[in-house]
Amino acid sequence: MTGTGVRPGAGAGAGTPSGAAAGTPAGAAAGTPSGAAAGTWPSATTALVGVMGDPIAHSLSPLLHNTAFRALGIDWVSVGFEVGAGGGAAAVAGIVALGLRGMSVTMPLKEEVAAAVDELTPVAARLGAVNCVVVRDGRTVGDSTDGDGLVAACAAGSGFDPSGRSCVVLGAGGAARAVVDALARAGAAEVVVVGRTRARAEVAAAVAGPVGRVGSEPDIAGAELVVHATPVGMGADAGAVPVDPGLFGPGQLVVDLVYHPLQTALLRAAAERGARTATGVGMLVHQAALAIERWTGHVAPVTAMQAAADGATEGGP
After folding, report:
1. Where are the alpha helices (DSSP H) in the chain?
2. Tell me, what's the pLDDT at 176?
3. Domain boundaries in the chain?
4. Which of 33, 147, 203, 269 has the most other CB atoms within 10 Å of its CB?
């Protein structure tokens, strides 16, 4: 998952290229190892990762990755690669051929990359989609960290544990399936999928196994967690609320994976009715943190990554 909402040039310092991401130190590139002399970094030994997809110029992933690398003090750098539909397999081959250490994957390549890597983690195999590629001994391993990123974000930002709780997921696409899978693995008592097309909702609900089922809008009223995982609320639909807002209420946590605008009409409607709310920025940060840990073996500096994301998304924290 990558995101929109970047303020161009936010945080750029003296000597920083025009449009550098927020969190870039004055006169240095994001992720520059502490003490590196001007003009000496990146070098021929700098480890390279990135994010690929189309479009890619809006992605926050390099900002998050490079913030983490700098905080960890390691000689790594992340950049964006524009790769359109149909280019996933060639890009995966290029990861190994060029010696990259890993790659984040966003639309429209998640399914293509899943078919092209040497191995899939059990989660990625269930979903048929990959958002993170790890290189191990010259072989590519495809993983999916989106769903676990959502669960981690709920815990860190809202103190919410899905274990034993009733959850509703709005939508049945790739992001929704990743969330459904992660909630089921986290011990949710029930994961209800509400989608426009019953056939797609059935596929998504099946990912949760025995705790998954297809539902309808009225199920929202009884849910402790509601996750909105459709594009409604962004772009031309910025003012739209995809469900009856009267179904929200106190005792619920409502998460919108859309975060441009940061405070969507759905989140505003839920808050007005007493529900706690959370934006999709947390999921973005935590899925990136999991990728950092898989690539480097280091514990990701989530606090620094969250601060960088908050500074770069519309409206700040």
Report:
1. 61-72, 88-97, 110-116, 122-127, 146-158, 174-185, 198-206, 265-272, 281-296, 302-312
2. 95
3. 47-144+282-312, 147-279
4. 147
DSSP 54: S
Is there a contact between 176 and 169 (Cβ–Cβ < 8 Å)?
yes
Residue-level pLDDT at 22: 39
- 147-279 maps to CATH 3.40.50.300: no
- List C-alpha distances in Å: 158 to 29, 266, 278, 302: 33, 18, 8, 15
- Model pLDDT, residue 189: 98
The one-character DSSP state at 24 is P
CATH 3.40.50.10860 assigned to domain 47-144+282-312? The reply is yes
Sheet arrangement for strand 212-214: 212-214, 190-194, 166-170, 225-228, 253-256, 276-278
To the question of pTM greater than 0.70 for the whole model, the response is yes
Please provide residue 75's backbone torsions phi and psi, each rounded to the nearest 5 degrees.
-85, 70
Residues contacting residue 41 through CB under 8 Å, at least 6 positions apart: 29, 32, 33, 75
* pLDDT tens digit sequence for 218-240: 999 999 999 999 988 777 777 88
Q: Which residues of the chain have pLDDT under 50?
A: 2-29, 315-317
Structure-block tokens of residue 175: 């992001």
Location of structure tokens 């949760």 = 208
Among positive and negative, which fits the CA dihedral 58, 64, 65, 67?
Answer: positive
Catalytic residue ranges: 110
Model pLDDT, residue 4: 35
